[in-house]
Design a protein that fits this description.
This protein is of the alpha/beta class. Helices cover 41% and strands 16% of the residues.
Length: 343
């Protein structure tokens, strides 16, 4: 209810400015222990065991909302079962020129071309070290925009080594449409080499630290069935622990001609839901339970979350749904899924 009252004001602001203001309000609510006014109260536990990790509930925060890990404690207070921060790169980078984020309100959608704007992996890890959160934390890693594709593996290995001890799991982002040529890493030969290098390094780090950190791969929704089959075989081959389906889409299918609909960038929100759910179902059929799926894309309600789980997902992640529905969406979905478990 409270978010419904303030949303018109937030939507009158430029999206990045609105985001910064929202995060400041959330931090204030957390410090004053009034976050329940935003979250709508407690949710019932709905535990899941995925990737060898115990999740208190299956509703997570998708990467992109807290790129630098600055708001982990405040976000966790909303009732998330897990938090994913990033995407982070080895070196700080400003991202693409502004404006680079656009609301399509009539379609309940967002187009962004942020371009991995972040303060670098060292700053992110400093922020994580100062947080009190001890729940499940995913760290989403990528390459710097000016790192040539043939050297991309170096950036991923660097971030993997840096983030290894701080993360509950690490996500390999090879699917953002906003870093030039990044999606080429989803091609079979490129992906095979990248996952081989990361798996080998993960084995070394596991021996060094006495702890095996799960690896997830985030994929695009703009994939054909043969692409999904080839990628799935590589996930199994290289012992990848989860697939996140999906990132944003370059398609404009489902849009109704809203202002800014022709902006370049990745589309998220309600129009993405059918496409991302189809990818989840296709993956589930090919993987046959050998690699769990984390679903993201167009989740605006408990019914949307159930649809993803029925398609084959074990966990779900939110982003655009939070922008349009507000922070109470987390507990609404978590409680509904808990009720489903008890029926």
């Amino acid at each position: 209810m409270l978010y419904r009252l303030v949303r018109p004001f937030l939507f009158s602001l430029e999206p990045e400015r609105a985001h910064r203001l929202t995060m400041r309000v959330l931090e204030l609510a957390h410090r004053t222990k009034s976050v329940r006014l935003l979250s709508g109260g407690p949710s019932m536990p709905a535990p899941r065991n995925v990737m060898g990790l115990s999740f208190p509930n299956p509703v997570g925060l998708a990467a992109g909302l807290d790129k630098n890990g600055e708001h982990v404690d405040a976000l966790a207070a909303l009732g998330f079962g897990f938090i994913e921060i990033g995407t982070v790169t080895p070196r700080p980078q400003p991202g693409n020129p502004r404006p680079r984020m656009f609301r399509l309100v009539s379609d309940r959608a967002i187009i962004n071309r942020m371009g991995f704007n972040n303060e670098g992996v060292d700053r992110l890890l400093s922020n994580v070290a100062s947080a009190r959160y001890r729940g499940i934390l995913g760290i989403n890693i990528g390459k710097n925009f000016d790192t040539p594709l043939e050297r991309a593996v170096e950036d991923y290995l660097y971030c993997l080594g840096k983030a290894y001890t701080a993360a509950s799991y690490i996500t390999i982002n090879i699917s953002s449409p906003n870093t030039a040529n990044l999606r080429e890493l989803q091609h079979e030969d490129q992906l095979d080499g990248l996952l081989q290098a990361l798996s080998t390094e993960r084995r070394r780090l596991a021996q060094l630290y006495g702890r095996r950190v799960p690896l997830a791969v985030k994929i695009a929704p703009d994939l054909a069935q043969p692409d999904i089959e080839r990628m799935a075989s590589l996930f199994i081959k290289h012992e990848i622990d989860a697939v996140i389906a999906t990132n944003t889409t370059v398609s404009r299918e489902g849009l109704t001609g809203a202002r800014n609909a022709n902006q370049q960038g990745g589309l998220s929100g309600a129009p993405l839901k059918p496409r991302s759910t189809k990818i989840v179902a296709q993956l589930a059929a090919v993987l046959a339970g050998r690699v769990p799926i984390i679903a993201a894309g167009g989740i605006f309600s408990a019914a949307d979350a159930r649809e993803k789980i029925e398609a084959g997902a074990s966990l779900v992640q939110l982003y655009s749904g939070l922008v349009y529905q507000g922070p109470s969406l987390v507990r609404t979905i978590a409680s509904a899924l808990a009720d489903g478990d008890s029926n």
